[in-house]
């Protein structure tokens, strides 16, 4: 059973490479998970990943495994 982490004290961060147009995601390390949300909708849904899943995702991004939207 998945347990939702307490995000009330999460410190949310955006990439330094984010543009100023508000189309960004934010992430927060909370215990042994990473929470990800849409910066335009801070009260909206949050995706929670195990640290290993986050590392695999970031590795894929760095390796060019995903196509850019648009």
Automatic annotation (TrEMBL):
Organism superkingdom: Bacteria
InterPro entries to which the protein is assigned, alphabetical: DUF397 (IPR007278)
DUF397 domain mapped to chain residues: 10-62
Protein name as it appears in the record: DUF397 domain-containing protein
Organism: Sphaerisporangium rufum
Lineage: Bacteria, Bacillati, Actinomycetota, Actinomycetes, Streptosporangiales
